[in-house]
Amino acid sequence: MDVFVTRAEFLEVNCYAVRAEGHDDCIFVDSGFDCAPGLAEIVDEENLVPLAIFLTHGHPDHILGLTNVLARWNVPVYLGDSDRYRLDKPAETLSPQFAQMLQPLVKDWSAPEVNALIDAQTVEVAGLTITAVAAPGHTEGSTLLRVQADGEEIIFTGDVVFAGAIGRVDLPGGDASAMAESLQAFATLPDVPIYPGHGPGSRVGHELATNPFF
């Protein structure tokens, strides 16, 4: 598999394009505000054809790029079922201070249609097999995305697990107990590369050995 990344300016969200070896089709993972130009550059340079967008969770910094991305590529969107409500009024799903900061970014927002992802659901697209692993705690619908192709696997962890850290649980919809259970589930995953929603990548085994939250 090939993984390409562009970083959205707002809160530096990692937005990914992924293709299976020998394929021109690809998927996107997460859609940060103003990520469309960066994704377009990747698509043009690599001659890719996007077929779907997968969202790791519904926080505004990971979804507000959908308007511009879908204007360029009219493809289906997938999001954990419990986070779908967050697309209706994204600024109102965070704390009041965040909501005020987000107002200029959501003034032209219109919630797109999304397909619900539930735990253990599998989607096959672009030569890839994407399996959803429900991982609530950061948000109710946070989802780990296990992506497999030709015997290779990578995992997109969103804001559940970062290199050396985990996602915060103090925002509306956060739950420390649920996060603890999600981390236990993460610890059972194979030792493969992970691609978080912010910051550098890592591996499952490296995080289990060095991340102070495990």
UniProtKB/TrEMBL annotation:
Protein name, per record? Glyoxylase, beta-lactamase superfamily II
State the species of origin.
Brevibacterium antiquum
| InterPro entries with a match to the protein in the record | MBL_Glyoxalase_II, Metallo-B-lactamas, RibonucZ/Hydroxyglut_hydro
Xref: Pfam families: Lactamase_B
UniProt xrefs under Gene3D superfamilies: Ribonuclease Z/Hydroxyacylglutathione hydrolase-like (3.60.15.10)
The organism that produces this protein has a lineage beginning with: Bacteria, Bacillati, Actinomycetota, Actinomycetes, Micrococcales
The question of whether Ribonucleoprotein is a record keyword is answered with no
Q: Which residues form the Metallo-beta-lactamase domain?
A: 12-198
**GO terms for MF:** hydrolase activity; metal ion binding
Q: Which cofactor does it need?
A: Zn(2+)
**What are the record keywords, sorted?**
Hydrolase, Metal-binding, Zinc
Extract the SUPFAM superfamilies matched here.
Metallo-hydrolase/oxidoreductase
Taxonomically, which superkingdom?
Answer: Bacteria
